């Protein structure tokens, strides 16, 4: 499975736009129940103005809201991002910690966000299970589970070690563009023949292209 996904996309990465670990942390926090496209539109205006914890803290909740008002739950997210900025300044010298417990202690940051930051910003072989990865893992039979923690544990067990670093991105992109929720594009799926999903979308297989 992963050798095929790797052949199509040798260097997968997040579709969120960022240049520093802090920008990634903010973007991932904003992306909860929102699309990467929507978050990118907001951060393209926000980051040129405020791209550090100090600048976000100075902006304040009311100053931040206009930049992210197009994103769902923006009131709560604005409060969390500003509180996060203050905590990073007070406890971490304004730097994003490379530590799961410290990340999860930040306002608005859960296990999934911490995993994304550890993986994408710091190169840790973590897997952040979102709705796409949860769906792909269960549909394909790769790592079935009733909840995200069970799926995450399963993936950590079955994914070969040399694929762990990029597995998170391959699975998200596969779920986002091929193994879609309502109508999976099975004819264009490079792992169709080894997938255990019973209700495959009908159609003749289409040769894969990069």
Outline the secondary-structure elements.
Layout: H1 2-8, H2 21-30, H3 36-46, H4 53-68, H5 74-92, H6 100-104, H7 111-120, H8 131-140, H9 148-158, H10 164-177
Q: Give me the strand/helix succession.
A: HHHHHHHHHH
Structural class: mainly alpha
Q: How many E strands?
A: 0
Radius of gyration: 18 Å
Descriptive overview:
This protein is mainly alpha-helical and 210 residues long. It is built from 10 helices and no strands. Helix 8 crosses helix 10. The longest helix is centred in the middle third of the chain and has 19 residues. The radius of gyration is 18 Å and the shape is elongated.
Question: Top keywords for this entry?
Answer:
single chain; 210 residues; mainly alpha; 10 helices; elongated
What can be said about this structure in brief?
By secondary structure, the chain is mainly alpha-helical.
């Amino acid at each position: 499975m992963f050798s095929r996904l790797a052949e199509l996309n040798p260097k997968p990465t997040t579709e969120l736009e960022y240049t520093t670990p802090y920008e990634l942390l903010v973007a991932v926090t904003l992306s909860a129940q929102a699309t990467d496209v929507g978050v990118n539109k907001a951060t393209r205006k926000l980051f040129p103005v405020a791209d550090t914890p100090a600048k976000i803290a100075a902006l304040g909740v009311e100053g931040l809201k206009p930049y992210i008002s197009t994103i769902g739950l923006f009131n709560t997210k604005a409060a969390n991002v500003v509180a996060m900025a203050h905590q990073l300044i007070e406890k971490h010298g304004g730097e994003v910690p490379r530590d799961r417990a410290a990340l999860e202690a930040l306002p608005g940051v859960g296990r999934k966000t911490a995993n994304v930051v550890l993986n994408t910003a710091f190169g840790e072989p973590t897997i952040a299970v979102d709705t796409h990865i949860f769906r792909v893992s269960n549909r394909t039979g790769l790592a079935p589970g009733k909840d995200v923690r069970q799926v995450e544990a399963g993936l950590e067990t079955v994914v070969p070690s040399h694929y762990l670093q990029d597995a998170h991105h391959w699975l998200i992109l596969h779920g986002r563009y091929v193994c879609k929720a309502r109508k999976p594009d099975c004819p264009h799926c490079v792992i169709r023949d080894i997938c255990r999903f019973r209700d495959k979308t009908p159609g003749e297989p289409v040769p894969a292209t990069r």
